[in-house]
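Before relying on records like the one below, remember that each one covers exactly one chain. Contacts with other chains, cofactors or solvent are not represented anywhere in the record.
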Amino acid sequence: MQTRYIGRMSAHLTGPIAAEITRRLTETLGPTHLQVIDDSEKHRGHGGYNPNGGESHFTVEIESPVFAGMNRVARQRAVNHALADLLQERVHALAIKARTPGE
């Protein structure tokens, strides 16, 4: 597993979908911390698992000043909006931990 660090941001990259998630969230939400984790192997044999390379289940930990004043649901919607087509076509499950700097 490869890890890429950008300031306080890191992505555990296993393939192009993790890289695309990182790119989109970085461009859209300007995070001060971002970690994209491919959890696919934990879901081997479960619905939505992709036996041809994983990249079906992810956890995103994101910290961004954009989230100030937003409740948990609004923060998750902002992340989902940035990744909308990936969630429809390529990503089966996404766990989101979204906070503002200092939370």
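DSSP finds three helices and five strands in the chain.
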